[in-house]
Design goal:
Helix content is 25%, strand content 34%. It has a single domain, classed as Rossmann fold. The chain is an alpha/beta fold. The strands form three sheets. A four-stranded parallel beta sheet has the order 1-10-5-2. It has a four-stranded mixed beta sheet with strand order 6-3-4-7. A two-stranded antiparallel sheet has the order 8-9. The longest helix has 9 residues.
């Protein structure tokens, strides 16, 4: 899956498993979200709901569970797939980062400092 390489290149921890619930136990201090869909080519992951957006944005560590069947071939298909599941959509593709005018990079400035995606594959 191309999305795995893209996410890892952005500093995202990616775990591939047949049982996401088993993996979640390792992340007790993180905010866990169920992803609605994702774009295979860009690595953009869509989530839904205001409460989840607020919690994910304030969390130090955001963990996303992404089912293999929710990975779409392009961003429009991924957005439409997510929109069919929720009226309120937000997206993420990496840990939050910002740079100042001198180019000093800071993680966690406007959202989670760490982002993990658990890709649940079919058995």
């Amino acid at each position: 899956m191309k999305i795995i390489q893209i996410l890892r290149s952005r500093g995202v921890e990616v775990i591939i498993t047949e049982n996401a619930r088993k993996e979640i136990e390792r992340f007790r201090d993180a905010h866990v979200s169920q992803a609605l869909s994702a774009d295979e080519r860009s690595g953009v992951i869509f989530f839904g709901g205001f409460q989840d957006k607020r919690a994910a944005g304030l969390a130090f560590h955001h963990v996303a569970i992404l089912k293999e069947e929710d990975i779409m071939k392009d961003v429009i298909s991924a957005y439409n797939h997510a929109k069919s599941k929720s009226d309120m959509i937000f997206a993420s593709s990496s840990p939050s980062k910002s740079a100042d005018i001198e180019g000093k990079l800071i993680f966690g400035m406007h959202g989670p400092k760490k982002f993990t995606v658990i890709v649940e594959v079919r058995k």
